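As promised in the previous annual report, we have extended the structural survey to additional targets. Below is the entry for GGDEF-domain containing protein.
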Amino acid sequence: MSIRRPLQRMAPLLALSVAVGVALALLPIFRWGGEGAVRTVDSLTLVALSMYATVCAVQAARSDPGPGRRAWTMMALALTVRTVGSMIWAFRVIALRPNTIPSPPDLWYVAFTLLTAVAMILFPSGPLQGSRLRTVLDGVTATLCLFLLMWMTALHGLYNSYISHQGVPVLRLLFAMGDLVVLTTALLVIGRAEPRYRSALWLITTATALVTATDAGYGHLIGTGRFHTGSLVDLGWAAGSIAFAAAAHLSCRPPAARRPASVPSNSSLWLPYVPLLLAGTIGPAIVMSGLEAIIVPFIMTAVCVRQSVAAWENRRLLAATADQALRDPLTGLANRTLFHDRLTHAMMLRQRDARSVAVVSVDIDDFKMVNDSLGHPVADTILVRVGERIVGSVRPGDTVARMGGDEFALLLEGEEDQSYVVAGRVVEAFDQPFVVEGEKMLLHPSVGIAVASSDEPDLVPEALMKRADVAMYAAKRSRSLGLHSFSPDMALAGLDVTALARRPTDRPAGDGAAQIRLLGELRRAIDHAELDLVYQPKMHLRSGRVVGLEALLRWPHPQLGVLRPDEFMALVRQHGLMRQVTEFVVTRALDDAVRWEIAGVDVAVAVNVFAPDLQDAGLPDALCGALRSRGLRPSLLTVEITEDVILSDIDRVTAVLHRLREQGIRVAIDDFGSGFSALSYLRDLPIDEVKLDRQFISSITEDTRAAAVVRAVIDLTHELDVTVVAEGIEDAGTADWLREHGCDIGQGYYFGAPVAASMVPELIGAR
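The corresponding structure token record, generated without further manual editing, is:
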């Protein structure tokens, strides 16, 4: 975050500090108004500044909703004690003009020092930064070592100079000890504090250092008898109050985004041992002689080095722990916590730098089938490979995270166009099969992307992630390979995310790895239009003419050969691929019809339509639009449906069928007699053809009961003005029987096997 805003907030305080500094510096020089005026103005100014710092600390405590409130409350109490001491001092200087040392305000100042140390310890430390007890012990160790060093170098002589003043030596030692406690505590706390408090703590440390230096100068002037109220040394106390107020001002700013757990800084490891090292090396040289003056410093150095090495090793362990806490244990990618933190930071930078932020949501389709078929160890191996593929598709600096299960997320920053390029590379990464235990498996990802636009400055990270998920679920619903970008109409459409996320639990029988591999190859074949159609002729039984063709789906598999629908349609139904297959069949059949028409062959074509499309109210308009765009008449197309399709929602299906017939498209019931409500369908549904199931047709020449049923159905359908088509005619005897009993159209290998689209003109010409 830019420091411009905090500086603007502190501008009045900076101006005040400059004005006070200039006034207090000029006051003792020019002695305006005499000694009395100087003492009064100087004392009251220090009291006012102390009160101002107290008010600022109270405001900081009120504005902090987190654990920092206790620290600022204690700091406000400490500054209140200091203010009381300053008021007593001012009263004595202005009214009583005493010259006794020690004086009552000194006790208040000692209490202020101790309370400030407690407030410093109460500032919240960052995660993994150690306990407050450890900070206290480090502070005590450093304070005692520094005090010992100062005693041997300076305080011992100062103590002797005060020896004739009752109570002064002890008071001076308390001041020195207290100042050292606050200063060392401040330095130790800074290295362990949460990042949002460090700027304020640096200012508090600066204020403490100013007060410490001023107290030292005050003690020296008192000892030499040269101190008087209004001297330049008062500038240090004034500057300390202003620094305390500045720290409180800085703490009142809104908290930044919470950062992930971090390890202690390098300085916090060795800083507590510096005073010990100094006291243990310099001190013996002063107070010892002989061999001890040489050995003791070496011992202290070895102890400090050993402790520093132990602290460094602990830091390495903490660093590893912190990293593991932010990483997915399986793939080593970022986890949800780290991803959300980086996204929050990126959104904050977007507001400042006006750059693009995109979130990509990736979900592996049908991964439950992998778990159920191959087991969790193999599934985990595949997830690791998926993570490697995604990482290999992104740029340095992009964030890839595993959000849980088979869900991944990407954070892309920079140009918006580049974000789409990277997301497209992620989709392409799944074109190649995954090789696991010698098996090749094609996995299909559903990928959605959402970009934070520049006209949405208040967009929050959670909303951007939700948009990416909505786009991903739209991709899952469409079942098409490719990148889906979020658009507002997706949210308005009210996508049922929960329903879309549910996957079928049942799977085809057979080897799990083979089924997974076959499903991946089927998805690829559908996405790249690698399926094929063949056409079986429909013969008019009396004239022998070809009156139509039925489009039959085939899958030319590169290893398994040409697969018929019964070998892969179970996967199509169970994994939500029926809509894409229907679209492929209709598109290919109409394109072939156009080519036949150009070749001079005008023949009707029948296609099978599955349940999801037949329940779509937009199907009639879509089919008519496809016919119109190719210049084909509607009666050229026959839509074949099965009884099990109708059973699911007969009212909606009936409405769609009525609209199809109104548009001129013919409707046929396929596999008639294989369901349970055939007669009611003849009565209620708007149909043009009934196709008798091959199970009835195959035995009519041998089974009198089957023959009676077929004869009755033929008579009944003719009464309803419906054309009868017999499927599965394999021999001349069956064809003759059907012709004699009035069946209209026959279809089967007796009349010809299915042929490729290119062979249809020749087939029609031969007939």
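The longest strand covers residues 546-557. The CA atoms of residues 16 and 242 lie 9 Å apart. These points will be discussed at the next consortium meeting with the crystallography subgroup.
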